[in-house]
Amino acid sequence: MTDFQPLISDVREGLAASLKLAGDWDRLLLSCAASVAGPSVVCSSVWARALAETHLKDHRFRTLVLSRGGVVVGLLPLAAPTPAARFALKRDIGPVYGAYPGRSGLLVQDGNADLVGAILGQLVEKVPGWDVFLFRVVEGSACHAAVLDVAAQRSLRLREISTTESPYFELPEAWEELVATLPKKTRWTIRKGETELRAHGELEYVEHTEPASTQALLDAIYAIERKSWKEDSGTSITARSWEQGFYDALVPHAAAGNLLNGHVLRLSGAPIAYILGIAGPDRVFVDLKESFDASFAKYSPGHVLKRFAISSLIARGVRTYDFMGRCESYKMRWAQQTYRSLTLVLYNRTVRGRLARWRSRLVGAKSAANED
User: Which structural domains are found in the chain, ordered by start?
Assistant: First the structure.
């Protein structure tokens, strides 16, 4: 394969057609992953399969495929609500993996800028029936730069509509190196919490990565969620059936795809804290969810669990811990670095696309005026 061979594009209908490309999908993802400066495993085919079975059950799936010399070099798996209302203000479309937050981007070989341009161009030319394309990129990433260049060169109607700043930290060669960099109070909290928990019973740490252990992991997670501070506020997984359904689907798929990385802390056999994550060949651990039994809050079981989980991650060769989400105080006790995820919208040259762009600009102008 050479760059002199022509690019061939086609659009394939249906979820099954998308998942047949899982090997190419994940190969492209790995080629453009660059620690937190690129898309994460939440853009993988495994993640998309879980979304398709839950949040996106009523969506239509199409996949835009770019190939050169018989090799897939770009992939854009798309989801759109169906059926679209005939008189809807606009028809939205976006990457399948965009239905859940996380580091994202466009999946092209090695993050190549020309391929980014080609895939956006083919989206406009070959995929019918949409007015607004919503997607996310990491600020300052190769994909972000390529998207901005392409938009300027092709006069694409592109707008940034929101940003999220998320914390992360790099993992050293050993736990002792990391703990030495933590605030003195955090180090004291971990030591004190572990000592006091051990005084109350047998403290056990369990790592879950295999398909055979997925049910045990889910049972532990839900038991902890029901006893967490989030249950009363209605924000726990177990208080939201749609979220529990997603994790019921994701965890087995992640285990089968060698991505699952769950951690549970037990006291005298009872689960008291967990961290649910996924870790791929990019050597980045993505912390999806974590919580603890509120009755043990004074012992800081979440921090104690991190002491075991991070040691295990280091031993597995993981080099970056991505907290995802917002910069909450408990995350910032561990992380000093952040990245920004940008949500971008590309407006199609349809009547409704033009109207959507006009409305967005009007709302933006009003917001700016109010801030002044």
Answer: 7-165+340-371 (3.40.630.30), 172-318 (3.40.630.30)
Q: For residue 60, which of 98, 18, 13 has the smallest C-alpha distance? A: 13
Task: Report the predicted TM-score, pTM, of the whole model to 2 decimal places.
Answer: 0.91
Q: Which residues share a beta bridge with 128?
A: none
Question: What contacts 24+ positions apart, CB below 8 Å, involve 234-237?
Answer: 236/291, 237/289
State how far the alpha carbon of 91 is from the alpha carbons of 28, 81, 147, 347, 348, in Å.
Answer: 28, 8, 22, 10, 10
pLDDT tens by residue, 19-65: 899 999 999 999 998 788 889 999 999 999 999 999 998 899 999 99
The burial of 233, by beta-carbon neighbours within 10 Å (0-12 exposed, 13-18 middle, 19 or more buried), is given as exposed
pLDDT, tens only, 333-356:
999 899 999 999 999 989 998 998
Q: How many whole angstroms separate alpha carbon 292 and alpha carbon 264?
A: 10
Question: What helix, strand, coil percent values describe the chain, rounded to 5?
Answer: 45, 30, 25
What are the backbone angles phi and psi of residue 139, rounded to the nearest 5°? -60, 130
Beta-sheet pairing, 132-138 with 337-347: antiparallel
